[in-house]
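Figure S4 source data
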Amino acid sequence: MITGSLVALVTPMHADGSIHWEHLDALVDFHLENGTDGIVAVGTTGESATLAPEEHCQAIGHIIKRVNGRIAVIAGTGANSTREAIELTAEAHKLGADACLLVVPYYNKPTQEGLYRHYKAIAEAVPVDQILYNVPGRTACDMSNETVLRLADVPNIVGIKDATGDIPRGIELIESLQGRLAVYSGDDATAAELMLAGAKGNISVTANIAPKAMADLCRAAMAGDRDEAARLNELLMPLNHKLFVEANPIPVKWALHRMGLIGEAIRLPLTPLDVKFQGVVEDAMRASGVLN
């Protein structure tokens, strides 16, 4: 089972929007050096929605090669087309991904039966471990706990990223699953509480810029050390909130640029962080110890 701090890695770019491979290598090394347990390659934070399929797969393969088996690599392969999701998942499996993360189909708003059939079809088509991803605030479609429980019977569906931020609902899901699937938080602000309740890690935006602190938080929370988890959670809370002052990944890419790790490029229709928010994000970075 993949556990711990799993960074939802950004995709660094040149000013013309092409992928900056040298900066991507540097980011992977940054996480290897700072205790991150796994990398989510080209998930929604990695701007999967605006990468062409060939770029998407090229970036996944590049990250897998750079990691070279030292930590887990989870490939983001979700799509609002079941056929496209199968194709991306098959290619990620071929490239050597440890697992695939599949976001709930966005915009087309399938029924719960449609979600069940979508995920079951992908799992049956590609023999790789698969993690469901429910983020209704971005997809306009909410996968119910009941649908997750149905999908837990599919052998290679092994987990779910719960980005609802609803702790009582997340705890109910953990208890109902009885260990059949790993539940991961997908909401930095509530991740500590969900891990203390039994979640197996956090698929994190904040980990992009504070990898060591997030890795330490995950280990403390999963070990049941409530005091240490609370201390680290308080330290990271300014980032957990202010990295969402504009749509993710706008603020986190600016923060990494401010740290000198990447350029500030982002693909349209997203735009660089508005000047009026730059001081807000910088203050949060200082409060959380990322900047002096």
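Figure S5 source data
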Amino acid sequence: MQEWTKSPSAPQQIGVLLFDGFSNHCLANTVEPLRAANTLAGRKLYDWQFIALESGPVTSSSGLQVAPHRPLQTASGDMLMVMPSYGFRAHGGWRTLSGLRSADQRFKVLAGLDTGSWLLAQAGLLDGHRATIHWEELTGFTERFPDVEAHRERYVIDRNRITCSGAMAAFDLVLHLIARDQGQALALEVSQLFMTRDSARSHAGGAGATSGYVNKALALMQEHLEIPLPVSEIANRVGRSQKALSVRMQSELGAGPAQVYRRLRLNLARKLVAETDLSIGEVALRAGYEDPSALTRAFKAEFGVTPRALRTS
């Protein structure tokens, strides 16, 4: 069962190793959900740095230049995300491979995103592990690295190795990591922010995908925040009994329908409090509460601060 919320922890230190030809799309789908998690949590949960083999700028496949924060040989942290993307075979020289082997001693987890799996495998860092890669390269990957158990999955988590098949899958992976490390409540907020409805994607190595009717229930909740529907009505509309919906949602999200629905409504209230000058009474109505006092009690219980205090701060 997924945990709905988790206790605060120290920021995770993440290094993103870029090579010339990296994908802007993959990079954005990796760091933007982390940035959103920090913003929504109101504190730094993730701290990332851009890393390169050398100190000069790295140029993406579309010409965007990124100035790295530090070279690979001085970097360390909780996770190193290797992101070569296009032209990855040209980066498989001794300097890259020895740098990755050395980094394995300084990072707790190594992750190959897009075609980064190829470089990790070439360095011998995926031997005996399950892994995936961009599906266009999967056949060649399987033939080239017989000691790696290759799978056609969006992402694979196997012990201290993570591999991911492409830019869209990178978003799924990061959302899963947020849910695993920070709780499903925050992952759901990040998903809402990026307007993703269906997270039921194929993957291996951890829970995180939701069933079709749970996604339909979430969509119904999102569409009826101002005038909330009874949970029994939501269950009826998705073609399940209330008990079946409750059991499945508890199993997949770590919370029942009522708790999830309340969080969605309070997320809206928090956004309106922070970003508009609507009165607390109007915010309460838009979030499905009959009066400001009811909203304030629920808001403080969920976020540890009253709406007025949040707005003042």
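The chain has a mean pLDDT of 90. The radius of gyration is 22 Å.
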